[in-house]
Each structure stands twice: as C-alpha cells, then as structure tokens.
Design brief:
With 126 residues, the chain is mainly beta.
Length: 126
C-alpha cells in the first residue's frame, strides 16, 4: 500500500511559478514510476507528467512541455512538479499518482496507476 499527500498548491498570477510536492509512504514507494495528473471543472482527468522509478526518464504532456519539470528524491520519498510560466488554462486540481509495479517506467494512462493522492488546487489568475 502506498499513501500519497500533495502540497504546494495555491493561487498564482499568470506567468508565475509554483512547486508541487508529493510525499509518498509505503514499502515500495521509492521504486515505482510516479505521475502527475490534473482535472479542471467539467473536464476529464488528464496526464501532466511522469517519471520512472529512478528518475532517469521523464515524459510530459505537450501542453506543459518546456514549462513544467517533474523530479524525484527517493531518499525523501518525494516527487516534485515545478511549474513555471503558468497560464489560466493550468487551473485544475492536481493529483499525484504511483504505479504498483517495482522498477516501473513512465506512463500517461490513468489506469496504470494504482495509488492516488487526494488532489490539490492550483488556480492561475489572469
């Protein structure tokens, strides 16, 4: 079992930056692929970024490529999402997710993630 807790969200003006953190606990939390997803009101949950189990590989949605950076510190069991040049369209609830398979890679499919955080609000004002 893996428990995920997001932090770092809030309100920011367009063009600003935020860094989300996802603290993971559980026996295999530092050895699985992790991802960030987001869901805006009235829309489906969408993929944002993913990182493989050791941080050596990352993958981004086209809409955030070049603006967002995913990273992890396995010693702290924490995954980060650095968000820069934020736009009003980035406004959503952001979710951290973990895969169940040890040594897993990146994935943009929601069904390949077994564990989810409770979500954290990010609001970008124009």
């Amino acid at each position: 079992q893996v428990t995920l807790v997001e932090s770092g969200g809030g309100l920011v003006q367009a063009g600003g930056s935020l860094r989300l953190s996802c603290a993971a606990s559980g026996r295999t939390s530092s050895s699985v692929g992790m991802g960030w997803f987001r869901q805006a009101p009235g829309k489906e949950r969408e993929f944002v970024a993913a990182i493989n189990w050791n941080g050596g590989r990352t993958y981004y949605a086209d809409s955030v490529k070049g603006r967002f950076t995913i990273s992890r510190d396995n010693a702290l069991n924490t995954v980060y999402l650095q968000m820069m040049s934020l736009k009003p369209g980035d406004t959503a609830v952001y979710y951290c997710a973990a895969r169940a398979t040890p040594s897993s890679g990146t994935s943009y499919y929601t069904w390949e993630y077994a564990y989810w955080g409770q979500g954290i609000q990010v609001t970008v004002s124009s």
